[in-house]
Write a structure and sequence with these properties.
This protein is an alpha/beta fold and 552 residues long. It is 31% helix and 25% strand. A hairpin with a 5-residue loop joins strand 1 (26-34) and strand 2 (40-46). Helix 12 runs antiparallel to helix 13 (337-348). The longest helix has 17 residues, at 47-63. It is globular, with a radius of gyration of 24 Å. The termini are far apart.
């Protein structure tokens, strides 16, 4: 299916459509507290209520100048207002700008400076941040506070909400009109604002609906706020979990399990860190979650051990799915736990990489020769043969075509192909004879030695098979192409009595027995691995490389 590029489609119309089809089904459920007996109390909006609430807010936003094309930075917590506001912005034709607070203060300020928001909708704490960093928010002339307004100007959300309800006719939008700007995490380079069109969002929703076979009675537990926004458009009830979304590795597993059981959750998105924490608790307490039909885990590579541990809580027909993608293009491929545990796991442990499945319908995935330079024009000569490791590129309707006013990033990450655009994922991999994609690590993390390149994921898999290794990270010390390969090892935190010298000897013997790792002769043991806040799984190998250089 290749929809007409000039078709008029405002993504907010999908909410209105669902409100007509299932007006009294709960759209968003939010834990509002606990009663005297400690039971969770919930508040909710039905699809009809959510559609009407977003209409009321759309009228109010328009009245203060938040209309078509107005870049609007949103910094509010996931909840009822988050959904109503976002769809209200879509209806007015404004452009929501989403910056991940998990990237840290410095990264956030840089993103805000770059996107130059004209309106800012935030909780009081976010506005206090705005007041104390005026340089970053110089472009904002429409401040709106969600909650009490303290010592700054502007209006509150309650003040602009127009009641009684009147229908709001969404602004007409073409498929290629900008719908939102979503910033990348910045975990492997400067954060970039991916420009999403209404057509991108429509393609994402159709792809997710089709591939995961979302049914009419689905109830979702989205532990990543952005993914929650798909739920109303898909007709799923979104149950907001009681957690700190910026620290999934520290989530209280009992609260997640409580929500799944209380609400009969059928679908859950979980980062690898959250999956591991909840799965570990479930294993210790022999917990079963019979209502879950599928679990989707993404954001960083997911280990087979992690998948196996969580799968033990599911019924036989339920599976853990691990789609592959990036902020600029997601989902691109997907693979289920059955295929991982029964087939690809043993190959991954031998250094094949991590199998992330076959391309989803409407996506074209190719492997091209590795280059750190811009590629201006697509050519078939770029494509490598099957089974060769190279750079992963993808095109399709859900793939974003450019970044917000960032010509340098466009040059490095986009390849023009007539009217189409290929996105360079920044990842390395290869395609097997079954058409499945195998992920081999970030392009920027490859170690370039005199004997040739070494790729992180395949090499690390060899060391990770040792029972005392929790995880490993391959880094290069020195300048390419004469880098020294160094393997950094993090041992299991619950095993403090490990003999490091003996383990080092065993790991070097292990490395010598494999072609992939036989040239790795230096092992280091950092106390901790620097990882991203959001997923707690993406290892900052650049930091480890600098640390390793000092140690050596």
């Amino acid at each position: 299916m290749n929809p007409s590029k000039d078709k008029i489609l405002n993504i907010a119309s999908l909410l209105t459509q669902m409100a007509r089809i299932q007006p009294y089904k709960r759209a968003v459920v939010f834990p509002s507290g606990r009663d005297d007996d400690g039971r969770v109390t919930y508040t909710h909006l039905t699809f009809r209520q959510l559609d009407m609430e977003s209409d009321c807010l759309a009228h109010g936003l328009e009245s203060v100048g938040v209309g078509k094309g107005v870049r609007t930075l949103i910094m509010i917590r996931p909840g009822l207002d988050f959904f109503a506001l976002t769809f209200a912005l879509f209806k007015t034709g404004a452009i929501p700008v989403v910056v991940d607070p998990g990237m840290g203060l410095k990264g956030m300020i840089q993103c805000i400076r770059e996107c130059r928001p004209e309106a800012f909708i935030g909780i009081p704490l976010a506005h206090a941040f705005r007041v104390t960093h005026p340089g970053a928010f110089r472009s904002v002339h429409i401040p709106i506070t969600v909650g009490p307004r303290w010592f700054w100007g502007g209006v509150t959300l309650r003040q602009i909400r127009k009641v009684p309800w009147q229908p709001y006719v969404p602004v007409s939008a073409l498929r290629n009109d900008t719908a939102a700007i979503l910033f990348t995490s910045g975990s492997t380079g400067p954060a970039k604002g991916a420009v999403y069109t209404h057509g991108n969002f429509d393609a994402q929703i159709r792809t997710i609906q089709s591939h995961f076979q979302i049914a009419e009675d689905e109830i979702d537990l989205p532990t990543f706020p952005l993914f929650a926004l798909f739920d109303p458009a898909l007709g799923m009830t979104a149950v907001i979990p009681d957690m700190d979304f910026t620290r999934p590795a520290e989530v209280d597993p009992e609260k997640i399990i409580e929500a799944i059981i209380n609400q009969g959750i059928t679908n859950m998105f979980a980062s690898p860190a959250l999956l591991d924490r909840v799965g570990g608790f479930g294993k210790q307490n022999s917990i079963k979650l019979p209502s879950l039909r599928r679990v989707v885990s993404a954001g960083a590579p997911v280990s087979a051990d992690n998948i196996e541990q969580f799968s033990a809580m599911l019924c036989d027909s339920a599976e853990v799915h691990t789609p592959y993608g990036a902020t600029e293009a997601v989902p691109v491929t997907s693979i289920s736990s059955q295929e991982i545990l029964n087939e690809t796991r043993r190959l991954a442990e031998k250094g094949y990489g991590i199998c992330v499945g076959s391309p989803l319908q409407g996506l074209d995935v190719q492997i091209i020769r590795i280059s750190d330079l811009p590629i201006n024009q697509w050519a078939e000569e770029l494509v490598l043969d099957t089974s060769e490791i190279g750079e992963i590129v993808v095109r399709g309707d859900l793939v974003t075509r450019h970044y917000f006013e960032n010509a340098e990033a466009d040059a490095l990450h986009k390849i023009r192909d007539g009217q189409d655009v290929w996105h360079r994922m920044g990842d390395l991999g290869w395609i097997d004879r079954k058409g499945r994609l195998w992920y081999c690590g970030r392009k920027s993390h490859r170690v370039q030695t005199e004997k040739g390149p070494l790729y992180t994921i395949p090499c690390e898999a060899i060391f990770n098979t040792h029972s005392q290794v929790f995880r490993s990270a391959l880094v290069g010390v020195g300048d390419a192409p004469r880098q020294m390969p160094v393997i950094c090892i993090q041992t299991h935190p619950n095993d403090p009595d490990i003999n490091v010298k003996a383990l080092e000897s065993e790991l070097l013997q292990l490395a010598s027995r494999h072609v992939l790792t036989q040239d790795i002769t230096t092992v280091l043991f950092p106390k901790t691995f620097p990882v991203d806040v959001r997923h707690n799984s993406k290892i900052f190998r650049e930091e480890l490389a600098r640390w390793g250089a000092q140690k050596i």
